[in-house]
UniProtKB/TrEMBL annotation:
This is GDSL-like Lipase/Acylhydrolase superfamily protein. It comes from Prunus dulcis. CDD domains: SGNH_plant_lipase_like (cd01837). PANTHER family: GDSL ESTERASE/LIPASE EXL3, GDSL-LIKE LIPASE_ACYLHYDROLASE. Belongs to the 'GDSL' lipolytic enzyme family. One of its GO terms (molecular function) is hydrolase activity, acting on ester bonds. Keywords: Signal. Residues 1-23 form the signal peptide.
Length: 349
């Protein structure tokens, strides 16, 4: 038995070494909604925008960029944490070109969802169109780097996918159509199938390393609490339970894809648990206010209602879990991103 033992160890070591040879992540490629949109909506006719003050007041240079935050968003922070650039440019922004996009690019669009009918609500970029832009990007990258280098970059890159909240809050629970067609559980399954199709599509296009973020505790977003009048503005439990159930299904789908698609390294990133901890005990994280956002009264303002003329905006967004009534502050984004890097994305570091 003793002589058999050594070759096995050797094999394990060789495999480990081979896995490491895969190389560091050379680029971060982003798909999704406002949680990761770095400004694509500035370049399409929609009201779902944030390229005006006080958005961006704590961003480098104090610039409003179209990020739905006072500062940086998780995709920026994760890129930074991976040793890549500190902010990820929006693909539609003519200020940038392929040499910038070669280390990170964002196709996300605030207000969009897995479901085609979700992006119709605020006339934003549907997910299938984000993929079309990505295909266009691939062509430009191949022209810029050459076929071989571009292909390697596209397969070593980390794809960050953060989407789904709008399908429930903007679409299912707000408009009559999907509710008349699906129970909420059926709608979850419908979205999970779309998510699986999306993963397969990216895989077919050469993507291998993917991070799929789950839903936040949707019922605790200030806007949801504002409408929970009977519940005295507590978190809406039903919405949180839907998020938990959707996340469980998403995690299962990711495991299934990893089994089905050779070479795929997809991870489910849970944001629910850490986010709920921050909301439940903000002081543990150095925060003070979790019920309302910083911008305006913090109860309903976002997008154009969160503007420089709103007199109620707080003094210090760093004390707030939420920046506006729907989106986390930079400080919360930092805690959630650090947790994602440490807990779920460590193998890509
Ligand atoms: C990208 O833009 C930079 C600066 O604006 C310029 O120097 C560079 O040549 C451009 N690269 C490509 C590939 O167009
Ligand atoms: C969404 O729209 C695109 C473009 O029209 C279409 O190709 C796709 O099949 C649609 N998806 C669903 C699930 O209807």
């Amino acid at each position: 038995m003793a002589n058999l033992y050594i070759p096995w160890i050797f094999l394990v070591q060789t495999l480990t070494l081979l896995a490491k040879c895969r190389g560091k992540v050379p680029a971060v490629i982003v798909f999704g909604d406002s949680s990761v949109d770095s400004g694509n909506n500035n370049f399409i006719p929609t009201i779902a925008r944030s390229n005006f003050q006080p958005y961006g007041q704590d961003f480098p240079g104090g610039q409003p960029t179209g990020r739905f935050c006072n500062g940086r968003i998780p995709s920026d922070l994760i890129s930074d944490g991976l040793g890549l650039k500190p902010t990820i440019p929006a693909y539609l922004d003519p200020m940038y070109n392929i040499s910038d996009f070669a280390t990170g690019v964002c196709f996300a669009s605030a207000g969009t969802g897995y479901d085609n009918t979700t992006s119709d609500v605020a006339r934003v970029i549907p997910l299938w169109k984000e993929v079309e832009y990505y295909e266009e990007y691939q062509k430009k990258l191949k022209a810029y780097l050459g076929n071989k280098k571009a292909k390697k970059l596209l397969s070593d890159a980390l794809y960050l996918i953060s989407i789904g909240t709008n399908d429930f809050l903007e679409n299912y629970y707000t408009l009559p159509d999907r509710q008349s067609q699906f129970t909420v559980k059926q709608y979850e399954n419908f979205l999970i199938n779309l998510a699986a199709d999306f993963v397969k599509k990216l895989y077919a296009l050469g993507a291998r390393r993917m991070s799929l973020a789950g839903l936040p505790p949707m019922g605790c977003l200030p806007l949801e609490r504002t409408t929970n009048i009977m519940g005295l503005h507590a978190c809406v439990e039903e919405r949180n339970n839907v998020a938990l159930e959707f996340n469980r299904k998403l995690k299962g789908m990711v495991a299934k894809m990893n089994n089905q698609l050779p070479g795929l390294e997809a991870v489910y990133v849970d944001v629910y648990y850490i986010f709920l901890q921050i909301i439940t005990r903000p002081s543990v994280f150095g925060l003070e206010e979790a019920r309302v956002g910083c911008c305006g009264t913090g109860r309903f303002e976002m997008s154009f209602l969160c503007n420089p003329h709103n007199p109620f905006t707080c003094q210090d967004a760093n004390k707030y879990v939420f920046w506006d009534a729907f989106h986390p502050s930079e400080k919360t984004n930092q805690i959630i991103s650090d947790n994602a890097l440490k807990t779920y994305l460590a193998k890509f570091l």
